[in-house]
């Protein structure tokens, strides 16, 4: 049985047969304070949807310490490799069969960059990530607006768990996230990227009501909660 542990914002720990991974490991400075980078000593993969600090987070430090491989879009992977991490670079639409299962990068409507000194360094396109774990597909949407490509996920990717941002301003709001859930048709939708800061102070219960009215099963994980599936 696979396990998902919500660490607040868009950060998750995902575990299953052959897989111990973090997704968008924003731990240092994460206001939810669920876990610290040093809490993770046994990882083999880190998935990163884009370069913004609240998603790339502690990926390089954790990867260098644990030997985990960072899987991300080509430009983010190269940036992490230059910093000394092990990486596996991919690109949107690309798939790869890892020992634990298949991974596919899919489109996201957002940006991707890091701040270095007084410079903004762009790092290619953002992405969502579909990770197969124990035969079930987990879709982490990253930061994204509502896009038509989500309908393809619903038709062809057989998403079991969809992790969807709902906070608005930088990403989909509750209304658009509910529409996204309807398009993706997951067995279970889980909201993320809410209440970390006042600007994304969205209510997950409101998302649940709208999405379930559209026929999608929703489970709210509070930061720190775990789910087995």
Fill in the keyword field for this structure.
32% strand, seven-stranded mixed β-sheet, 229 residues, 21% helix, single chain, six-stranded mixed β-sheet, alpha/beta
Count the helices. How many? 6
> Which residues sit in consecutive blocks of at least 5 with pLDDT less than 50?
none
Q: Widest sheet: strand order?
A: 6-5-4-3-2-1-15
Order of helices and strands: EEEEHHEHEEEEEEEHEHEHE
Helix content: 10-25%
Shape: globular
Describe the largest sheet.
Answer: 7 strands, mixed
Radius of gyration: 16 Å
N-to-C span: 6 Å
Tell me the β content: 25-35%
Mean pLDDT: 98
Query: How would you classify the helix and strand content by structural class?
Result: alpha/beta
Number of strands: 15
Please specify the SSE layout and strand pairing.
Blueprint: E1 3-6, E2 12-16, E3 19-23, E4 45-48, H1 53-56, H2 59-66, E5 69-73, H3 74-82, E6 86-90, E7 95-98, E8 101-107, E9 113-116, E10 119-122, E11 127-133, E12 136-140, H4 150-156, E13 159-165, H5 174-184, E14 188-192, H6 204-213, E15 226-228
Parallel strand pairs: 3-4, 4-5, 5-6, 12-13, 13-14
Antiparallel strand pairs: 1-2, 1-15, 2-3, 7-8, 8-11, 9-10, 11-12
Question: Briefly, what is this?
Answer:
This protein is an alpha/beta fold and 229 residues long.
Describe this structure in words.
The chain is about 20% helix and about 30% strand. The protein has about 230 residues and is of the alpha/beta class. The chain has a seven-stranded mixed sheet, with helices on one face. Helix 4 links the parallel strand 12 and strand 13 (about 160-165). The longest helix has 11 residues, at about 175-185. The protein is globular, with a radius of gyration of 16 Å.
